[in-house]
Amino acid sequence: MTGDFALRLGCILTAGFIVMALLAPVAAPYSPAAQDLYHGLDAPSAAHPFGQDRLGRDIMSRVIHGARVSLLVGFATVAVSLIAGTALGAAAGYAGGRVDSVIMRLCDVFLAFPGILLAVALMAAMGPGLSNVIIALSLMGWTGYARLARGQALTLRERDYIAAARALGVAPGRIIARHLLPNMAAPLLVEATFGVAAAIVGEAGLSFLGLGAQPPTPSWGAMLAEGREFLLVAPHVTLFPGLAIMLVTLGVNFLGDGLRDWLDPKTPGQRG
Amino acid sequence: MGMARRAPTSARALTSSRRPLTILSMNQGPLLEVEKLRKYFPVTSGVFSRVSGHVRAVEEVSFSINPGETFGLVGESGCGKTTTGRMILRLLEPTAGSARFEGEDLFALPPEQMRAMRRKLQIVFQDPYASLNPRMTVGAAVAEAFHAHNVGAPRDRMDMAAALLEKVGLGADSLRRYPHEFSGGQRQRVGIARALALHPRLIVLDEPVSALDVSIQAQVINLLLSLQREYGMAYLLISHDLGLVEHLCDRVAVMYLGRIMEIAPADVLYRSFVHPYTEALLSATPVPDPSAKTKGAALKGEAPSAMNPPPGCVFNTRCPLAKAECSQVIPPLTSRGPDHLAACIVR
Hints:
The complex is a heterodimer of chains A (272) and B (347). Chain A is built from eleven helices and no strands.
């Protein structure tokens, strides 16, 4: 029951943000970059429901456009780290031995750094920018998928259908692609959903520190940073991007929670 | 356990037809010659995963299988019979020993040649639920054999799979269905079709019917027999079911704690066995006659751990005939008649 509710709420929230991001140019009442210096820091009004920032830009339009940045970084990061992590983890678990040792020690090296600190260091080395944010967050995120995929591969490789494929002479790459990956998809999918939320928060954090999206690109994290100075006089500047981050993270996490409950009784591990 | 006790009855109810051993093929030499096969599994313990011992799953196992014959490997669970079967297919790497298949040492073949060799060696697994990929259609599972060895044109492979499925008694509509839509017996038929796809010379049958309902067992056994008559491949039947082995096999090897205790033609083994372990196994098999008295002593206790097998004859701790020297000398397999070997110093 609760899982079903979480799944529905998660779907609605996530789908809402995706639609908002896709339709941003149409949905936003103003251009996110249009300045109106006479009305800097104006409180929410009928014309500007979320108020205006220091340069008089419409915060609602900037929050709507900011969804594009957040979701782009969220999904791109997960796509890169999921593919790389799963491939490395599945290879490590299936091959075992030296391949396993090398890949997992590499994994340990990445895990030894506190996550966001590693990303900050990487950003400092590579310079700011959205594509570098994706690279940094992916380098930080692949280890989770690799460890999960390895664990799955370790149990699955003992299954008789894998032995049957080996006995038939099916090549190792094809065994991983056709027999291992389809049977380990469910837990990875759930993990990936949580990964989207983590990447969105990661991007906000990096942008807040000025290492992410560069002005005038509207990013929720950067908007929080800009509003920080006016927290007491104009709280609306930080309130709305903050709410957006909270809601999208909540929605995606609910989606992941719901997916996990929904997929659980059907995963091969439970059924076998 | 209940299933195993009833199984011999159903096996005997089948059309009893042990084929005469093909004399012709004897001249060509054995199809498979296993020699001094050994498998130790390391046991690790402690923080640094130090190897603290070995499970001696298979020890000095030698036997041969002739073309077209059915060779039985029987023993209690844990005696190493499945491990032996998997090593022959190189699903497990042996610790020592050799296996010559058509004259070539399987364990010395480089990967690419071994892959080619797999056309001739196949396996049917015990658990029909675990042996099929739940996310792959039955047709794709069978057609994978053709893909792996580049047999036939890609667009014909599904038709070839359909023909095979029909051969094992499944309709052509099963092609696009997933394993969970089938019963255990039907899945085992899929497993047989997959093993048959490349026309192997030897199929390892690893407890092929022990996971099935008794009513289904007979059907699957009859299918295996008729396929053997049609294609002439040899079977290595791994089983704990003596009734089934007697019904199907030309020759039988009895294994205990990783070692072969006795090898003989099936009819000889069941009538004039030599080894006390064979006797104990046979007397433990229920006979479908409630008034029949059990001959010989039933086995007492559990088999010793394969990590720490008893010295001398591995059976001496449970043997009713054991003498002092049995715990000192490892008995060699000695000839007890034509094609009959047993490893016992008392008898």
